[in-house]
Amino acid sequence: MKEKGAVASTDKAVFAQILLNSFYVTLWITLSGTVILYNKWILAYYGFPYPISLTMWHMAFSAILAFLCVRLGFVPAVNMTTDTYLRAIVPIGALFAGTLWLGNAAYMYLSVSFIQMLKALMPVAVFTTGCVFGIETFSAGTLFNMVVVTIGVAIASYGEINFVVIGVILQLISVATESTRLTLVQILLQRRGLSLNPITTMYYIAPASFAFLSIPWFFIEARQLWSDPKASTLLGSPVSCLYGCLIAEYWRSSEVHLDIPIFVSNAVAAFGLNMSVFMLIGKTSALTMNIAGVIKDWLLIGLSVLIFKAQVTSVNLGGYLIAFGGVCWYNYNKLQAMKVRQAAQAAAQKADLEEEPSKVTERTPLNGKP
C-alpha cells in the first residue's frame, strides 16, 4: 500500500510539473506573439515608424518597473561590482539593444510570416557563434543539419513575394546579435556565477540597452521626430503629451501618432515577455524554449496571414518546411545529448554513493573498536 501511495504521489508531482511547464510555455508563446504582432501594427500600420524610439520606450519602461521592484524590496538586489557590470552586463546590454532595434526595424519592411521563417536560422547562428567562442563542439552531423536549415530558409526567401533587401539584412543582423548575446550570457554571466532573476536582469540590462539605443536614435530618428511641430509639442511637455493623447483629433492630425493607452499597453506586454522568457528558461530549459519557438512560429505565420493579409506562397512554405525539419532534428539531437549527460551524471552520483560506505567499512575494525 505504501508503495502504491508513493507511486501515486510521484505521478501527481510529475503531472503538476507538466501543467506548470505547459503554463510557462503557453504564457511565453502568447506574450511573444502579442508583442510581435503589436509592434508590427504600431510600426507599419498605426503611424509610428520609429523602431529605435519604440525599443527605447520598452527599455525605459522595463528599467523603471525593475528599479521600483528592487528598491521597494519586492525583489532582492544582487551585489555586483563595477568591473563585472562593465565586462559582463554592458556587452550583453549592447547586443540586446541591437537585437530589439534591428528586429523591430525589420517589421517595417517584411511580413511577420517571412520574418518568422528567417528566424529559423537562429540555431545556425547560435551553433556558429558557439563554435567561434569555444562553447559548442563542431561535428559534421551538426554542420549538415545547419546546412539543411540554411537551404530551407534560402528557398523560403526565394519564394517571398515582398522580398525587401534592407529588411532581410536587418533581420539577419538581429539574428547574429541575438546569437552572440546568448553565447555571451553563458560565458560572461554563468561562468562568473551570477544568478539573475527576471527583474534583476532587466534592472541591470535595460538601462545599458537604453543608453546604447540613444546613440543611433540621436542620429537617425531624433531629427525626424522633432521636425513635426505637433510631435515635438507632445514629446516636449508631459502635460501637453497627456492632453494631446486624450484628444483624438489632436494626434490624428499629426504625422506621428502618440496614444498613451496604446504605448503603455505595448510596453507592459514587452515587459511581460521579458519576464516570461527568463521564467521559461529558469523553470524549464533553453531547449524547451527552442521547441516552443517552433510552435510559436507556425502560429504567427497563420496569424500574419489572417490579420495582416500576408501573402505566403507554396515555395515559402516548402522552404520553411525544410528549415522546420532541420530545426526539429537539431532540437531532437540536443534533447538526446541532454539525456546522455543527465544519465552520466546520475551514474556518477550513484557510484559515489556506493563507494562512500565501502570506504567507511574499510576504516572501521570488525570489533567496532578503534
Automatic annotation (TrEMBL):
<dbReference type="Pfam" id="PF03151">
    <property type="entry name" value="TPT"/>
</dbReference>
<feature type="transmembrane region" description="Helical">
    <location>
        <begin position="314"/>
        <end position="332"/>
    </location>
</feature>
<dbReference type="GO" id="GO:0016020">
    <property type="term" value="C:membrane"/>
</dbReference>
<feature type="transmembrane region" description="Helical">
    <location>
        <begin position="12"/>
        <end position="38"/>
    </location>
</feature>
<feature type="transmembrane region" description="Helical">
    <location>
        <begin position="165"/>
        <end position="189"/>
    </location>
</feature>
<feature type="transmembrane region" description="Helical">
    <location>
        <begin position="201"/>
        <end position="220"/>
    </location>
</feature>
<feature type="region of interest" description="Disordered">
    <location>
        <begin position="350"/>
        <end position="370"/>
    </location>
</feature>
<dbReference type="InterPro" id="IPR004853">
    <property type="entry name" value="Sugar_P_trans_dom"/>
</dbReference>
<keyword id="KW-0812">Transmembrane</keyword>
<keyword id="KW-1133">Transmembrane helix</keyword>
<feature type="transmembrane region" description="Helical">
    <location>
        <begin position="260"/>
        <end position="280"/>
    </location>
</feature>
<feature type="transmembrane region" description="Helical">
    <location>
        <begin position="50"/>
        <end position="72"/>
    </location>
</feature>
<keyword id="KW-0472">Membrane</keyword>
<protein>
    <recommendedName>
        <fullName>Sugar phosphate transporter domain-containing protein</fullName>
    </recommendedName>
</protein>
<dbReference type="InterPro" id="IPR050186">
    <property type="entry name" value="TPT_transporter"/>
</dbReference>
<feature type="domain" description="Sugar phosphate transporter">
    <location>
        <begin position="23"/>
        <end position="331"/>
    </location>
</feature>
<feature type="transmembrane region" description="Helical">
    <location>
        <begin position="84"/>
        <end position="102"/>
    </location>
</feature>
